[in-house]
Design brief:
This protein is α+β, with helices and mostly antiparallel strands. It has two helices and seven strands. The protein has one domain. Helix 1 packs across helix 2.
Length: about 120
């Protein structure tokens, strides 16, 4: 899969994500409404049957690292990365095990994200 095709694939996946209500009491930036994992990426590999791995994502997608996953995506043996696209923060959860496949994606509207005082 070329970088351009992977980028289009990722943007398409991220664009399909939807937000749900949730309050967060952490000291980190948070959304007034938290997203639920809207895409179970592990159940929907690309057409070749190969799941998107973190290595593929890291190479093709400009992103930032998160110290922890948001509550909607947290779980054992996983880590999260984010991108900003179309006034939304898209969070991608990857497995720490094996080839580090993509597990889920969530979206947070930028106007719902706040920083603690």
């Amino acid at each position: 899969m070329t970088r351009a095709a992977l980028a289009v694939f990722m943007i398409g996946l991220a664009g399909a994500a939807h937000a749900a209500s949730h309050e967060n009491n952490s000291t980190a930036p948070h959304a007034d409404s938290a997203a639920t994992p809207s895409i179970d990426a592990s159940a929907d590999p690309d057409a070749s049957g190969t799941p998107l791995t973190y290595e593929m994502f890291e190479t093709a997608i400009s992103h930032g690292d998160l110290p922890t996953c948001p509550e909607a995506l947290e779980g054992e043996h996983r880590f999260c990365r984010f991108t900003v696209h179309n006034d939304a923060l898209h969070v991608f959860a990857f497995s720490e095990e094996g080839d580090q496949p993509l597990l889920a994606i969530s979206e947070y509207a930028m106007d719902e994200i706040s920083f603690p005082d």
